[in-house]
Write a structure and sequence with these properties.
CATH topology: Rossmann fold
Distance between the termini: 22 Å
Helix content: 40-55%
Number of helices: 5
CATH architecture: 3-Layer(aba) Sandwich
CATH class: Alpha Beta
Radius of gyration: 14 Å
Number of strands: 5
CATH superfamily: Response regulator
Strand order of the largest sheet: 2-1-3-4-5
Order of helices and strands: EHEHEHEHEH
Shape: globular
Largest sheet: 5 strands, parallel
Strand content: 15-25%
Structural class: alpha/beta
Number of domains: 1
């Protein structure tokens, strides 16, 4: 238990992106403001997420690329939704059918989506908004 004089710990953002340069860009931009966990694939994301959950640590926001090398982001986000209530921002360079987006929102698999190229200040602003 923390004392009233302690500063609250940083919130945790997990980033799942299969392009390492984009993953590094997002990560380095938000690292000073948040704890950051990174994954280069959907399977790695699910594994790391389970590990965090099983050790009692909370992932507050998941930034998730839609087209990963090993699976689609919507598969990952819905599996994570089954485990916990982490807010997911789906990031994509491709157009996603509106019906799919509505379904993902209605099932609460995603809370927001952003199109690439993502403005880093807009990304940080979206994260901050969702943490309120």
């Amino acid at each position: 238990m923390s004392s009233p004089n302690e500063l609250p710990s940083k919130r945790t953002v997990m980033i799942c992106e299969d392009e390492e340069d984009i993953l590094d860009l997002y990560s380095s931009f938000i690292r000073g403001k948040f704890n950051v966990i990174t994954a280069l694939s959907g399977e790695a994301c699910l594994s790391l997420y389970r590990e965090e959950r099983d050790t009692g640590r909370k992932v507050d926001i998941l930034l998730l690329d839609h087209r990963l090398g090993d699976m689609l982001g919507d598969q990952v986000e819905c599996k994570i939704k089954e485990m916990d209530d982490t807010k997911t921002i789906l990031i994509t360079a491709y157009e996603i059918d509106d019906i799919v987006l509505v379904d993902l929102r209605e099932r609460e698999c995603i809370i927001a989506e952003m199109e690439k190229p993502v403005s880093l200040p807009d990304l940080e602003k979206k994260i901050q908004q969702l943490l309120i």
